[in-house]
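Annex B. Sample input.
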Amino acid sequence: MTKPKYKRILIKISGEAMKGKSQHIIDPLFLDYLAKEIKNISKIGVEIAIVPGGGNIFRGLAGSKGGMDRATADYMGMLATVFNSLALQDALERTGLDSRVQTAIVMKEVAEPYIRRKAIRHMEKGRVVILGSGTGLPFITTDTTAALRGLELKCEAIFKATKVDGVYTDDPLINRKAKKFTKLSFGEALKNDKVSVMDASAISLCKDNNLHIVVFNINKKGNLKKAVLGEKVGTVVC
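Annex B, continued. Sample output.
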């Protein structure tokens, strides 16, 4: 069996990615595809936690800009991530892969409460742990949640699943001359405004604790497995 470079990882996937090509808030076809990609790395012994965003349903920041109380809007955004967590759990279990949803906001009828040691135990048993509702606190993004949970759960890297194949000097969809980084330092990611990796709080946490970030295109079949094996896929921030 091929030995993965990363034994335990946290996957950060945006709500927008879960929308896929569908006109609806969640694309069942994309979820089926994503579940199979995740199962493929589980089969080679990788322990997996996932932090989903909620932007396909509701963004707290957008709500606050529209006049809503920021804390209220952020709580609504957290609930949106629980929708995505449950949809992803359903897709994973239809592939035969055991999973557990844990939430920072207690809602025991649909998910377990987030308990660090229990989450680690689930992963050790080969279950995928899906972490919904962010940190349970407003004003904190799901990027920062991913960094915090990645550190708490002793993950070796955060895998940021995106629609582009890495980090560029500029937006490659606008500037065709933008160049891709294969490797990027935390310092460069923090000081360059045109470089989009994660928000500054998340990058700072990863920098202070040397938690690598791998940015890759999740829409290309097999990319997740290649990245976990340490092949040159996307951009590694370290």
